[in-house]
Amino acid sequence: MTGLSMVIPHSLSVHNANNKRSGFIKKENLQIKSMRAVVQRVASASVEVEGRMVSEIGPGLLVLVGLHESDVESDADYICRKVLNMRLFSNDKTGKAWDQNVMQRDYGVLLVSQFTLFGVLKGNKPDFHVAMPPQKAKPFYESLVEKFRQSYNPDSIKGTINQKYLSCIPFSMFVSIRLSLLCSF
């Protein structure tokens, strides 16, 4: 298995000392203040809750979505657009790697709400104070799933939200991309 992890900035203009654009981003100047997604390319994936399968896809993307307390509709638009357009699949006709997105391959997308993506350790105890509260997160997440369905084939989008313990089982084709919106201080 191989893994790939990257942060993709959103609406961020970075300049060097001569006020020229630079591709280098100093992490100490940035703070993640909105939605996070961990995108995994999979041959298949399923979600089980208390031993019962609640959702599954064949080839495609498993997307763990963490909602921040300050998320707004434009954050959901960005995550939806980026996930659906990430070129994570090879082109079978040309042999070119990293050439096609999930829509071009007609693959599935399994979205899983994952508030723990905003966990931080306070001593030895996890704290999730910046994650969106459950009463606000559920309708926001449901609107995100609907946004994916409107942007792609509705039958190819599977979404699950559950406050009970769940397990996500991705199978092979393992590539992981961490997607965050970055804001300057």
Explain what the structure shows.
With 185 residues, the protein is of the alpha+beta class. The chain has a single domain, classed as D-tyrosyl-trna(Tyr) Deacylase, Chain: A, CATH 3.50.80. It has 2 helices and 10 strands. A 5-stranded mixed beta sheet has the order 8-5-4-1-10, covered by helices on one side. α1 crosses α2. The chain is globular and about 50 Å long. The N terminus is likely disordered.
How much is the radius of gyration in Å? 17 Å
Main sheet properties: 5 strands, mixed
Spell out the helices and strands N to C. EEEEHEEEHEEE
What is the level-2 CATH architecture name? 3-Layer(bba) Sandwich
**Strand pairing plus helix content: what structural class?**
alpha+beta
Largest sheet strand order: 8-5-4-1-10
Task: Kindly report how far apart the N and C termini lie.
Answer: 37 Å
CATH topology: D-tyrosyl-trna(Tyr) Deacylase, Chain: A
CATH class: Alpha Beta
EC number: 3.1.1.96
Organism: Coptis chinensis
Catalytic activity: glycyl-tRNA(Ala) + H2O = tRNA(Ala) + glycine + H(+); a D-aminoacyl-tRNA + H2O = a tRNA + a D-alpha-amino acid + H(+)
Subcellular location: Cytoplasm
